[in-house]
Amino acid sequence: MSSHDGTTGGTTDAGVELHPWSEGDLDLLRRANTPELMNWVGGVESDEQVRARHERYLRLAPDGRGQQFRITIAGHPEGVGIVGYWQHEWRGAPALESGWSVEAEYRGRGIAPAAVRLMLEAARAAGETLPVHAYPSVDNPASNAVCRKAGFTLLGEEDFEVGGGVLRTNDWVAELAHAPGRPSGGDREA
């Protein structure tokens, strides 16, 4: 699900495509369970936790509370990463949260920003109108750059309890519902 212009339907200029999460994607999730990636979000999970997360991802699409995707590029149909969104509450109001990861050997090619843009388009196509937040650690320059490149707007810093500790994050937002003729998100930083 992707296209040259970042909408669903073909391939992006980075050759990125999104595929709805399926039973066969458990190994992709296990490959993403590395200290390098998971230390940003509370630490490596046990295999039982990974399997439970896989089951949650499988339930997202049918119940309408979000969607998880396998990121593929030409020659790698098994997937090179993960991207998705899900409902959550933010400051007493409903919102969407997003997250992603790309395997180490495929980073630096523009895959993550392209996948996040495609995920936002998929959310719009699914009728989602809530704002989409991303909360990368303030110390994670790569994920903060993905937010900027994907058109999110930086709102400020927030503290989150994760894995028994506190994670200092940036709060980025992309608006799915916007006035005609006005772009959603942007490169401006608050």
What would your notes on this structure say?
By secondary structure, this protein is an alpha+beta fold. It has a single domain, classed as 3-Layer(aba) Sandwich (Aminopeptidase). Helices cover 27% and strands 32% of the residues. It has a seven-stranded mixed beta sheet with strand order 1-2-3-4-5-7-6, with helices on both faces. Helix 4 links the parallel strand 4 and strand 5. The N terminus and C terminus are likely disordered.
Key traits:
seven-stranded mixed sheet, disordered C terminus, 190 residues, 5 helices
Number of helices: 5
Question: What integer is the average pLDDT?
Answer: 81
Just name the CATH architecture: 3-Layer(aba) Sandwich
Helices and strands, in order, run as EHHHEEEHEHEE
The helix fraction, in percent, is: 25-40%
Low-confidence stretches: 1-11, 179-190
Strand order of the largest sheet: 1-2-3-4-5-7-6
CATH topology: Aminopeptidase
Count the beta strands.
7
Strand content: 25-35%
Helix/strand/pairing category: alpha+beta
CATH-level-4 superfamily name? Gcn5-related N-acetyltransferase (GNAT)
Overall domain count: 1
Straight-line N-to-C gap: 32 Å
Largest sheet: 7 strands, mixed
Query: For this structure, what is the CATH class?
Result: Alpha Beta
**Radius of gyration, CA atoms, in whole angstroms:** 16 Å
Broad shape: globular
Task: Give the helices and strands, then pairings.
Blueprint: E1 17-20, H1 26-31, H2 35-38, H3 47-63, E2 66-73, E3 76-90, E4 93-102, H4 111-125, E5 132-134, H5 141-149, E6 153-162, E7 165-174
Parallel strand pairs: 4-5
Antiparallel strand pairs: 1-2, 2-3, 3-4, 5-7, 6-7
